[in-house]
Design goal:
Length: about 70
């Protein structure tokens, strides 16, 4: 369990620094910048500006995708 926690800490610090994390045969985690945009509060309907932000995306490796889809 300690090994998994250590690996996740390394992955988190790598993503925070803006670098991609690729796990061969599994996929790639990447940090992307989202531009500011107009949004709406779903409760009140009020229009607001959403600030720019960074999000983590994941792209599945082709081999894993094929296994999942039974190809």
């Amino acid at each position: 369990m300690v090994l998994v926690e250590h690996l996740l800490e390394i992955m988190k610090s790598t993503l925070v620094s803006g670098e991609d994390v690729m796990i061969s045969g599994f996929g790639k985690f990447q940090v992307k910048e989202k531009s500011p945009r107009m949004g709406r509060n779903p409760d009140t309907g009020e229009t607001m500006t959403l600030d720019k932000r960074r999000v983590v995306t994941f792209k599945c490796a082709d081999g894993l995708r094929e296994q999942i889809n039974g190809e």
